[in-house]
Amino acid sequence: MISLINRYVTAFGPSGNEDEVRSLLQADLKQLGAETQIDALGNLSCLHAPGKDKNRSRVLLMAHMDEIGVMVSHIDAQGFCRFLPLGGVRAPWCVGARVRFGNGAIGIIGAEPHEGSTALKFEDLYIDLGASDQSAVTVNIGDSACFDRPLEASGQRLIAKSLDDRIGCVVLLETLRRLRSTPHAVAFVFSVQEEMGLRGAGVAAFGFDPDFGIAVDVTRTGDTPKARPMEVALGKGPAIKLRDSGMLADPAVVRSLRAAADHAKVPYQLEVLEHGTTDARAIQTARSGVPAGCISIPCRYVHTPSEMVDMRDVEGAIRLLVDLLGRKL
Ligand SMILES: [Zn+2]
Question: What is 2-67+161-326's CATH number?
Answer without folding.
Answer: 3.40.630.10
